[in-house]
Design brief:
Layout lengths: L4 H10 L7 E4 L5 H6 L5 E5 L12 E4 L2 H11 L3 E4 L3 E4 L3 E5 L3 E12 L4 E7 L6 H7 L4 E5 L7 H5 L5 H21 L1 E12 L4 E3 L3 E4 L8 H4 L9 H9 L2 E4 L4 E5 L2 H13 L6 E4 L6 H12 L6 E8 L4 H15 L5 E7 L2 H9 L6 E3 L2 H9 L2
Parallel strand pairs: 14-16, 16-17, 17-18
Antiparallel strand pairs: 1-6, 2-3, 2-6, 4-5, 7-8, 7-10, 8-9, 10-11, 10-12, 13-15
Helix pairs in contact: 8-10, 10-11, 11-12
The structure holds adenosine-5'-diphosphate (ADP) and magnesium ion.
The site of adenosine-5'-diphosphate has 19 residues, from strand 2, strand 7 and strand 10.
C-alpha cells in the first residue's frame, strides 16, 4: 500500500527525520487562508501516488503570496500525467516552506529479494534525474545490504561530505531503518534528501510502500489508505475478498488458485492475446461470489472476451456454472465467454451452461481454449 508524501512526512517526523514545515490543503476556498501563514518562497506540491510529479508540473516554487495563490489554484484539481502512474486528478496539495538547497542526494531502503535483506541505496546525485544517474553513472550509486550489526558509516563516507553532514545522514538512515522494520514497509525513499545552505540535512520528498500482508497489524498505517488513489475495480475486489489485479490486455480471466491463474495468463499469451486481469476467486467461492467477480471483470471497457478456467475441488463446477449463468443473465453480457472446467461435478456444470439458453463456448481442454481465444 502506498501513501502520500504528506503522510510519509508525518511518519518521518515521528521518527526524528527533519522535513520542511508544511500544511495540507484540500479545498480551493482554503488556499488563501493557508498561504497567508507562510513566508516566501514556498513550494506547492500535488499529493498524488505518483513519482516524477515535478517533471509533470505538480511541484512548483512560488516566490510571493500572489504567485503562490495562482499556482496553488492551478495545481489543486489539475490532471497530472506521469510516466509512472498515468493520469491522476490532484485532490490535495501540500504547501511547504521552500528550502535553500545546496545539494540533492538520493536515499532509499528497499527489499533486495535475491539477498533476502533490506538494502541501503544512496547517492550524492539525487533529485529529479536519479534515473539518468542510474543509467549514465551507476558507480555514483552505492548499495549496502543491511545485516545484524549494520553501520552505514563506511557507505556514507563514500559520498564525500564532512563528518557533521555524514553524522546527520547516518542518523536519518538509522531512523528510516527503524521505521521500515517497525511498520513493515517494503520500500522507503527520500529523493531528494537535501543538504541546505545552512548545513542541515532534510527530507524534501517522501515515499513509502507498505507490505499489504502486514497491514492487519498496523491499524495506524491502514488508516492512511486513500481510496481515491486505488483502482476502483481492485478496491471493490478487496472488499469482496477476491484477488484481482487489473492488467492491460483484452481477455478477462476468472480462475481459482493463484498458480492456475498464472498458468491461464500464459495460455492466453500462447494464443497471441494478453490478459485483461489477474483474478483468483479462491478455493471455496460460492456462486454468489462468482457473480460478483464477474461483475468486476466486465466493468473493464477493454474486454473482448472472458476465459473461465476452473478446477473444481472445493469450488464445485455446478456452483461455478450457476454463478456464471446468473451473472450473464443479470448483467446483459454480449461478449464471448469461454469456459473450461475440470474436476468435481464437471458434467453437472456443463449441463447448466449448455441448457441455460445463453451463448457459452465450453471447451474440453486448454489446447481447445487456445484455438478459440486465437480467433477472438
Ligand atoms: P517528485 O519526486 O515527485 O518530482 P519532489 O518532492 O522530489 O517531487 O520535488 C521535485 C523537486 O522539487 C525536488 O527535487 C526539489 O528540487 C524541489 N523541491 C521539492 N520540495 C522543495 C522544497 N520544500 N523546497 C525547495 N525545493 C523543493
Ligand atoms: Mg522526489
Amino acid at each position: 500500500m502506498k501513501i502520500h508524501e504528506y503522510q510519509a512526512k508525518e511518519l518521518f517526523k515521528q521518527y526524528g527525520i527533519k522535513v520542511p514545515a508544511s500544511v495540507l490543503c484540500e479545498k480551493k476556498e482554503n488556499i488563501e487562508q493557508t498561504i497567508k501563514n507562510f513566508t516566501f518562497p514556498c513550494v506547492i506540491k500535488a499529493q498524488v501516488h505518483s513519482g516524477a510529479r515535478g517533471k509533470a508540473g505538480g511541484v512548483k516554487l512560488a516566490e510571493d503570496y500572489n504567485s503562490a495563490i495562482i499556482t496553488a489554484e492551478k495545481i489543486l484539481g489539475m490532471e497530472l500525467t506521469s510516466k509512472q502512474a498515468g493520469t491522476k486528478k490532484v485532490n490535495k496539495i501540500l504547501i511547504e516552506q521552500a528550502v535553500n538547497i545546496d545539494k540533492e542526494l538520493y536515499l532509499s531502503l528497499t527489499f533486495d529479494r535475491a539477498n533476502e535483506a533490506i538494502a541501503l541505496i544512496i547517492s550524492n546525485q539525487g533529485g529529479m534525474d536519479i534515473e539518468e544517474t542510474a543509467k549514465i553513472s551507476p558507480d555514483k550509486i552505492y548499495t549496502q545490504l543491511i545485516t545484524d550489526n549494520f553501520n552505514p558509516e563506511e557507505t556514507v563516507k563514500k559520498l564525500g561530505f564532512n563528518s557533521i553532514i555524514n553524522w546527520q545522514i547516518c542518523s536519518i538512515i538509522n531512523s528510516l531503518y527503524r521505521l521500515v522494520k517497525e511498520k513493515d514497509a517494503l520500500m522507503a525513499e527520500i529523493n531528494p534528501l537535501v543538504i541546505t545552505k545552512h548545513h542541515e540535512v532534510i527530507a524534501l520528498d517522501a515515499k513509502i510502500n507498505f507490505d499489504d500482508n502486514a497491514l492487519f497489524r498496523h491499524e495506524d498505517i491502514l488508516a492512511l489508505k486513500d481510496e481515491a488513489e486505488e483502482n476502483p475495480c481492485e478496491l471493490q475486489a478487496q472488499k469482496e475478498g477476491l484477488n484481482y489485479i487489473k492488467l492491460n490486455g483484452t481477455i478477462g480471466c476468472m480462475v481459482n488458485g493463484a498458480g492456475l491463474a498464472m498458468a491461464t495468463m500464459d495460455v492466453i499469451r500462447l494464443a497471441g492475446k494478453e490478459a485483461a486481469n489477474f483474478l483468483d476467486v479462491g478455493g471455496g467461492a460460492s456462486s454468489d461470489k462468482i457473480e460478483k467477480a464477474f461483475k468486476i471483470l466486465i466493468s473493464d471497457k477493454n474486454l473482448k472476451a472472458v476465459f473461465i478456467n476452473i478446477f473444481g475441488g472445493i469450488l464445485r463446477c455446478d456452483f461455478l456454472a450457476e454463478g456464471v449463468k446468473n451473472a450473464i443473465q443479470n448483467l446483459n453480457i454480449d461478449i464471448p465467454v469461454i469456459v473450461r472446467m475440470e474436476g468435481t461435478n464437471k458434467s453437472k456444470g456443463a449441463d447448466i451452461l449448455n441448457h441455460s439458453g445463453l451463448k457459452f463456448t465450453v471447451v474440453n481442454d486448454l489446447n481447445e481454449a487456445i484455438e478459440v481465444i486465437k480467433n477472438i
